[in-house]
Design a protein that fits this description.
heterodimer, A: 112 residues, mainly beta, 6-stranded mixed sheet, 5-stranded antiparallel sheet, 60% strand, globular, B: 114 residues, 7-stranded mixed sheet, 4-stranded antiparallel sheet
């Protein structure tokens, strides 16, 4: 069974810092990996999706990388802002693309 | 606006009283899923559906039922809710157009079973 781990569970940084969130998975036979943001009491907002054949995706200040062979993905956030404070979740899908496994998330606080 | 909607958003019920949480998407997606989110356990997939009349169990299907009679709707049914089903529930949809399966989530339903 696929296990997805996110470390650290919580992270606090001053505004303006660049930061990296980590996601690791045990089975490299994935179809894609998706990063989400979740605000307290709210639903999940998709940030970036990386297909298994890709190595990275970028959107604005966000850059996600994927290393399937080592079972790792990172989400890089440049020039962090207080509005980035949220929980960040990664999810991997199996080769069929419709079974998803989530990590427990990293709670990010950006201090003004 | 492309979206996944869930109703109700909040529900308090008693043990054993059957309930249904509705989920609807307007993106013509083939795939739909239900998840529950619990502290320390993250999101776990309950059921998923690959198209109309095609459903399959996820990781934690016990105590739940689903049906997919129309492409846009995927209701979650708790025939006899128990307190351990108190949780935050999310519906999601995705499509294999472009072969991406990017998931779109609803706003969540917070269920409390007393």
């Amino acid at each position: 069974k696929q296990e997805v781990t996110q470390i650290p569970a919580a992270l606090s940084v001053p505004e303006g810092e660049n930061l990296v969130l980590n996601c690791s998975f045990t089975d490299s036979a994935i179809y894609n990996l998706q990063w989400f943001r979740q605000d307290p009491g709210k639903g999940l907002t998709s940030l970036l999706l990386i297909q298994s054949s890709q190595r990275e995706q970028t959107s604005g200040r966000l850059n996600a990388s994927l290393d399937k062979s080592s079972g790792r993905s990172t989400l890089y956030i440049a020039a962090s802002q207080p509005g980035d404070s949220a929980t960040y979740l990664c999810a991997v899908s199996l080769f069929t693309g419709n079974q998803f496994y989530f990590g427990t998330g990293t709670s990010l606080t950006v201090i003004p | 606006e492309a979206q996944v909607t869930q109703n109700p958003r909040y529900l308090i019920t008693v043990t054993g009283k059957k309930l249904t949480v509705t989920c609807s998407q307007n993106m013509n997606h083939e795939y739909m899923s239900w998840y529950r989110q619990d502290p320390g356990l993250g999101l776990r997939q309950i059921y998923y559906s690959m198209n109309v009349e095609v459903t399959d169990k996820g990781d934690v299907p016990e105590g739940y039922k689903v049906s997919r009679k129309e492409k846009r709707n995927f209701p979650l049914i708790l025939e006899s809710p128990s307190p351990n089903q108190t949780s935050l529930y999310f519906c999601a949809s995705s499509s294999n157009r472009g072969r991406s399966y990017e998931q779109y989530f609803g706003p969540g339903t917070r269920l409390t079973v007393t």
